[in-house]
Specification:
Helix content is 33%, strand content 17%. It is of the alpha/beta class. The longest helix has 17 residues, at 89-105. The two termini are 20 Å apart. Bound molecules: zinc ion. Zinc ion is lined by residues 228, 247-249, 286, 289, 291-292.
């Protein structure tokens, strides 16, 4: 739902066989092709793109550098034409996707090649609207991820996080370390470059994630010497070993990750790299390791969790050397409420992601206090690997997780009713699809839609313009449209009777 619109007066804009799409800027050619696809799909009409402002070029995409805000756009439809103004290609693309919504929502007028007059002035509530896929648990092909991107841009998601390494697999080629990817399917660096280019044309940022120091059995199975001394004689087997970590005091860990981080940073154009930092089983690893205990003594630490300080001190220096910023999953001093501090002091230049059920309001307060920026992925609203209803993932016994219904996802207010200055460090929202029970792209899409519609609106639309009954009405044409595109969606039959 756009943040500001005004229904216009007078005649509709009539698209005909002479109508052209004008753009002054050749760099907008790909973006203009997305609008061509919209008219082909909604009106079955093929409109040419032109760079000359002729009388027939009544659909216009105009870059206006004086417009403030990277994604602020203005869309006007009058009897004389349709114009989208914005300061960037992503702003123009946002206007195109809103045009698609208008044409989809007014299908009868579209079938007659008419668009009713309207003026929309719009911009997102939050800068980053992210979805996260987990090909470490169940591999997804580059083709599948491209298809996923094609769908997410329709709802103005502008970033995709790829969870590339975990206990179950290592999915990114690292030159010089072929043993990392010897055990299963993986993306070559060439494939990832191609995927990043595909995403960039569609104004999607791909954020790579390498999870450390926990969730590392895939690297430990290839290089067991990177584990703590307590695990020296324990086999490291993908799919069997759990709760094992990189040793904080093994120098080779750092020489490995220096290379790995620099290669991954060079591969992805995003200014960010996510380095995990979650669910580290410190009591079973660092607390029982001879080397780590010696380091604790040397540093004068009383709590083994403090070893996260020197660990990330080194790891984050490689990120800074690559000219990037790090993102970490936010861990607090308790995994359930109440919690009142970080697990360890995160450096200020780290962006954190709030994720644990019920802890997001606390995370918003603590990150505000310490000056970290924050992404919100609260389990109870935005973990799309959670089932949508009881029995919805029967073969995985609901994957052992609580239920997150579509309505629950829609109830997410990333501001939690706080005054704006209490959450102005929140950069965006993220929907996660942890892959343990997500066996393929069809399951990923089924878990994503329709709940991602709700998250899209939570990330984009101010609370005063959000309304469950309005959302329910707008949901159906979008669901049917995705089905026509070959997307597996879940029919939310439970809300049909919800008046
Ligand atoms: Zn150790």
């Amino acid at each position: 739902m756009p943040n500001q619109y005004k229904i216009g007066q007078g005649k509709s804009f009539a698209v005909n066989n002479l109508t052209k799409i004008y753009t002054s800027n050749k760099q907008l050619d790909f973006t203009a092709s997305l609008l061509q696809q919209v008219f082909k799909k909604r009106m079955n009409i093929q409109l040419p793109v032109t760079h000359s402002p002729s009388a027939d070029a009544t659909i216009r995409l105009i870059i206006d550098p004086t417009i403030k805000g990277n994604e602020t756009y203005k869309l006007t439809v009058t009897a004389h034409g349709l114009t989208i103004y914005g300061s960037s290609s992503i702003a123009i693309q946002d206007g195109i996707m809103t045009t698609d919504q208008l044409l989809l929502g007014d299908a009868f007028a579209s079938s007659r090649h008419q668009i009713a007059p309207i003026t929309i002035s719009d911009k997102p509530r939050f800068a980053r609207r992210i979805l996260m896929l987990d090909p470490a648990r169940h591999f997804l092909s580059v083709k599948d991820i491209k298809f996923y991107i094609d769908q997410m841009i329709k709802y103005k998601f502008n970033a995709l996080q790829l969870h590339l390494t975990d206990d179950q697999g290592w999915r990114v080629e690292i030159k010089g370390y072929p043993k990392l990817t010897a055990g299963g399917p993986f993306y070559t660096q060439e494939e990832l470059k191609d995927l990043c280019n595909y995403a960039a044309l569609r104004n999607v940022e791909i954020i790579p994630e390498l999870d450390v120091p926990g969730h590392t059995v895939s690297i430990l199975s290839a290089y067991p010497e990177l584990a703590c001394t307590v695990n020296d004689t324990i086999p490291k087997i993908i799919g069997t070993t759990t709760d094992m970590m990189l040793c904080c005091s093994q120098q080779e860990v750092y020489s490995f990750y220096k290379v790995i981080i620099s290669q991954v940073c060079a591969l992805f154009p995003s200014p960010y790299i996510h380095l995990g930092g979650d669910e580290a089983a410190i009591s079973k690893n660092w607390a029982k390791c001879e080397r780590c205990q010696a380091l604790m003594k040397e540093k004068g630490y009383s709590n083994p969790a403090q070893l996260m300080i020197p660990f990330f001190d080194k790891i984050l220096s490689y990120v800074r050397d690559a000219g990037k910023k790090a993102i970490l999953w936010c861990e607090l001093n308790n995994i359930y409420a109440p919690a009142d501090d970080y697990l360890f002091p995160y450096p200020k230049d780290v962006m954190l992601v709030s994720w644990r059920n019920g802890l997001t309001p606390t995370c918003i307060d603590i990150t505000k206090r310490y000056g970290n920026t924050l992404i919100l992925a609260p389990g109870e609203y935005a973990y799309f690997d959670y089932p949508q209803m009881k029995g919805d993932l029967p073969e995985y016994n609901n994957w052992g997780m609580p239920i997150t219904t579509l309505k629950k996802s829609y109830e997410f207010d990333p501001g939690y009713g706080l005054p704006a200055d209490r959450y102005n460090h929140v950069d965006g929202v993220m929907g996660t699809l942890w892959g343990e029970a997500i066996i393929d792209i069809n399951r990923a899409l089924y878990m994503t839609y329709p709940r991602a519609f709700a998250l899209s609106e939570a990330g984009w639309t101010d609370m005063e313009h959000r309304n469950w009954n309005s959302f329910r009405q707008r949901l159906y044409p979008n669901l049917l449209d995705l089905i026509k595109c070959g997307v597996s969606v879940r029919a939310p039959f439970e809300i049909a009777k919800d008046n």
